[in-house]
Amino acid sequence: MREYTKERIAEDLLSIGAVILRPDEPFTWASGIKSPIYCDNRLTLSAPEVRTDVEKGLAETVRTEFPEAEVLMGTSTAGIAHAAITAHMMGLPMGYVRGSAKDHGRQNQIEGRLEPGQKVVVIEDLISTGGSVLDVVEALREAGAEVLGIASIFTYNMKKSAERLGAAEVRNVSLTDFDCMVDVAAKKGVIRPDDVERLIRFRNNPSDESWIGMKA
Questions:
Q1: 144: left (phi over 0), alpha (psi -120 to 50) or beta
Q2: Is the pTM of the predicted complex or chain greater than 0.70?
Q3: Burial status of residue 96 (CB atoms within 10 A of its CB: 0-12, 13-18, 19 or more)
Q4: Which residue, 12, 156, 31, 184, is CA-closest to 195?
Q5: pLDDT recorded at residue 2
Q6: Phi, psi at residue 55, to the nearest 5°?
Q7: How confident is the model over 21-69, as pLDDT tens digits?
Q8: What would you measure as the largest C-alpha separation in the chain, in angstroms?
Q9: Beta strands in 15-105 (DSSP E)
């Protein structure tokens, strides 16, 4: 039986192109920042074997890191399916949090039943700077939930997200992370060994584009 490890999930994401490392041909984020990495964890939903690894990993993370969890709440939209599958595997209720309240009907921002005082784990697919997931945490706290933490598929390990999460007193546990991904990619020949320093330089300060001109 396949077991969840950081390396296994990193291999999975690379194998289906959910993570692409391309330091010689950077991607451009909406913010204008040049990035050597692109992550689209929605692709895991279309790959049954990888999806199974991910959902088992999320379930194991919730059980071991947040054993008091009573409800799983997905982030909109990428975290919804993962929250639903993981909650089903664990026999837990789930819901999701919209980016903003609806402008019609009951104007809900939180979908699904959530009682004040319930212990919640947020399910997220990707942590970059941490801003969007913390909006979800804030909405849940305002609704009276006790947010135990976040279980996510991948994090960039950026200093900014660590500072934001720390300030909000919320803990994130990711199945795999940027550093592990780079290590696995180098070992598998997806990137050159000399690319590792360039990628870590990006992770340390995404606004500093000096890594682009570094010779590999």
A1: left
A2: yes
A3: buried
A4: 184
A5: 56
A6: -70, -35
A7: 999 999 998 888 899 999 999 999 999 999 999 999 999 999 999 999 9
A8: 56
A9: 19-21, 27-28, 34-35, 37-39, 71-75, 94-97
